[in-house]
Amino acid sequence: MKIYVCRRKLAQWRGTLSLLFVIFIVYMTNFATLYIVPTPIGNLDDISARAIEVLKQVNWIAAEDTRHSSRLLQHFSISTRTLSLHDHNEDKRTAMLVQRLKDGESVALISDAGTPLISDPGFVFVRRCREEGIPVIALPGPCAAITALSASGLPTDRFIFEGFLPVKTQAKDNQLAELKARTCTSVFYEAPRRILATVKDIARVLGDRHIVVAKELSKTFETYVSGTPGDVIDYLEADAAHQKGEFVVMVSPAQVNLSEISAEAMSLLTTLCDHMPLKKAAAVVAEHYDLKKNALYQAGLDAKGAKDAD
Ligand code: SAM
Predict the structure, then answer these.
(1) Beta carbon of 141 within 6 Å of any ligand 1 atom
(2) Is the CB of 189 under 6 A from ligand 1?
(3) What distance in angstroms lies between residue 112's CA and the mean position of ligand 1's atoms?
């Protein structure tokens, strides 16, 4: 008898839980989508047809600076309502926009130029949407870092995007010092008022490391300058106009002196790589032969590349 009552209660509970689950799913499927929409970094023709369509279709456009974006929106006859979302109001706006998305109103996030969230606001908003189960779709599009890197002639197989360097000298020096042994390309954004000082700092901390500075991408005076930091300083100081505009600074990987690595060490490295990740193998061999970990890591990558090519 007791068993019978329990079973009936269980069946009732199961019914209630199923109903709650269905209500939850219906509620969730009513959520509208947040679109991350990249906009041009200079040349208006770089906006995609899909970006224009999404900006026309959504209920709201959240823009870093609504006045700045209004020129772009007018140019493409986009009349969607806008509201601001920037570093100083992102928490407040996030709460409001998340509620609108939950109520079924779609939102597109744009920044002043390029891909939102890449050295631009939006992280707090997107993270919250993810936490709340709101669909987030990012459209591919313009980004100064990727545009510059792809045409720089520097290695692109591995790179680190650093955003803007710190302004304070000590913090900036510390961050640049990390590049001394870094075996991949580093990419930075820099403001015009600091570009000369930053290249001088690179010269002071990293010496004659090969660098590339990309300026005014996709605009009339697009320029790539490459060479030692000294070469780039000469270019920047040659004409005041050379320091105006927008800049991406790229630093080449540290040169690895492979001749320091004996055949014996190299052989141990390749053997260990069959049993553990390259990073760990490089650390073990570095300790055993008193060599630089980064040099061994780079040698391991080169050996792997050569093996893969065979
Ligand atoms: N979200 C943007 C993106 O996807 O590239 C970046 C925004 S960040 C606030 C602005 C910085 O990006 C500029 O200071 C400059 O370093 C870089 N940048 C933007 N447009 C550029 C361009 N046309 N040429 C070179 N650098 C550019």
Answers:
(1) no
(2) yes
(3) 9
Q: Count Cβ atoms below 10 Å from residue 107 Cβ, excluding itself.
A: 25
Tokens of 257: 């002196």
Mean pLDDT within 86-107? 98
The DSSP line for 1-56 is: -HHHHHHHHHHHHHHHHHHHHHHHHHHHHT---EEE--B-SS-GGGS-HHHHHHHH
Which residues, other chains included, contact 172 with Cβ-Cβ below 8 Å and sequence gap of 6+? Answer: 165, 166, 198, 201
Q: How far apart are CA 4 and CA 214, in angstroms?
A: 77
Q: Considering only CA atoms, which of 289, 292, 290, 294 is closest in space to residue 268?
A: 289
Mutate to test the pocket of ligand 1, among 41, 123, 217 (most ligand atoms within 8 A of CB): 41
The structure tokens listed for 302 are 């080169």
Q: What pLDDT digit, counting tens, does each position of 103-144 carry?
A: 999 999 999 999 999 999 999 999 999 999 999 999 999 999
Ligand 1 in contact with 64 (CB < 6 A)? no
Residues 6+ away with beta carbon under 8 Å from 43:
218, 219
